[in-house]
Design a protein that fits this description.
The protein is α+β, with helices and mostly antiparallel strands and 118 residues long. It is 19% helix and 21% strand. It has a five-stranded antiparallel beta sheet, with helices on one face. It is globular, with a radius of gyration of 14 Å.
Amino acid sequence: MSQDTLFLKIVRKEIPADLVYQDDLVTAFRDINPQAPTHILVVPNHVIPTLADVTENDEQVLGRMLRVASQLAQKDGLAEDGYRVMINCRDHGGQEVYHLHLHLLGGRPLGPMLARRG
């Protein structure tokens, strides 16, 4: 699996993106195919392929990802009504890019987490 992911190219500013936050640990940008009025991705600045690949050394970056998501939700006016933070893991979890990332979604009622089976 290549460590040169699409998201890493965004982090390095080799591919244009609507960046909303960047520091030494994480980068956040608006999703190009938003599923809600606010849909921001927060990624570590180094490749961690999946949540299953997280190690003890990644705890600081994971905490930063959540803190940045919370700050961006506040900045985008989502805090009062609420929002969703999601991390997909591998194929069955719906992960499309194998560079750990969280989705910050909000701006409208988001409905149930999963489609109900009949």
